[in-house]
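Page 47, continued from p. 46.
Same chain as before, 239 aa.
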Amino acid sequence: MLEGSRQLIGRARLFRTVLLGRSQDPLEGIQVYDILARWLGRGDETMLARMRETELGRRLLDERQDVLGVLGDREALRALPDGTLGRALACFLDERGIFPEELARKVREARADSGGFAPRASPEVAYLHDRFRDLHDLWHVVTGYDIDWAGEYGVVALSAQQVGYRSQTIATFVSTALAAVSGRPDIFGTWLQARRRAREAPYLLAQDWPALLPLPLREVRRRLHLDPPPKYRPLPNTP
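Result:
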């Protein structure tokens, strides 16, 4: 009974920290999404069905394209010409000290005790969840949202809208609503705009991202109906 109460209090504190935008650890946000996903679902059916809608999506699914290996090759990205998506990604990761491969490792370790994030999922669905995670930082660059809290809410709202990820949609809705009550209603507007952009863009999970990296960033944004990038007021990641 006492142990159960402690766990409940710990979860309440975790939810409060994440939903109020006071977490400094991305794994805390993932923990909250995982807990909500057990109740609300992860969008597995939508994620897989949309992937199968196009020939390219089916091919990428069959090949199990490894995007993490490409995005983790920082030297190759830095060698691309100025103005390309890949070079912009390298600058984004370098300037913010982000390592997608390190996050992937930490996430796998964090979920090891529970048998993984999707222990009963098909190999296809498990692969798509890995792909969804590994492309997150690249989507920051393509969509134009930075890693401040308002930017995180924007990119998560956009990607969750595309794949039907209800737990992420609800969590970011609550966070932006709380921010609005606290004097930042513009952040809720950023959230709404991100969902609209998600509906206008093609399915981002089914794009051949390694082939897009050498192209000019503006051209990639135009192709994906993500141009121009959004104008929004950042919300600093403060404790």
